[in-house]
Amino acid sequence: MKRAEKLRTPSLSKELCILSVIEILYLWKALPNCSTAKLQTMSQVLQGIDDASCEGLKNLLLGSINRCLHNTNDAIQFFQLAARDEVGHLSNSYVQPYSCYELACVLLNTPESAGKGRMLMLQAKEDFAGYDFENRLHVRIHSALASMTAAAAQP
Length: 155
Prior knowledge:
Layout: H1 2-6, H2 14-27, H3 36-47, H4 55-68, H5 72-83, H6 95-107, H7 114-126, H8 134-153
């Protein structure tokens, strides 16, 4: 409800409305279903937003979009920026743990960084508490850890 109230302010910009729409697509795991052209348009709009209070969220979304576009290095950079965001932590408390999780998922895809990815996955699970959408992230983490365990058990 807090988010809905913020969207009712008369000073709301078009860009911040779009940010909110992209955030919903991200939370519902719908970004991978978007076309490359739409993802690129979303990325351009997000890069034009200059609001310190949503910088972390913007970087989380840019990381996720770049991951969908298979721009792995850019995705890693955006997830790292989002994970370090302290300014927006109060208004978007879920950004840091979700960024750790997303970064972990990217790192788990390559053998040389899989150890760090697993560490970040556990950090996202254990080091954060009391944030928005916490249960949703715990389900994602549990599923990812179960997949890693199953993959390791296969000959």
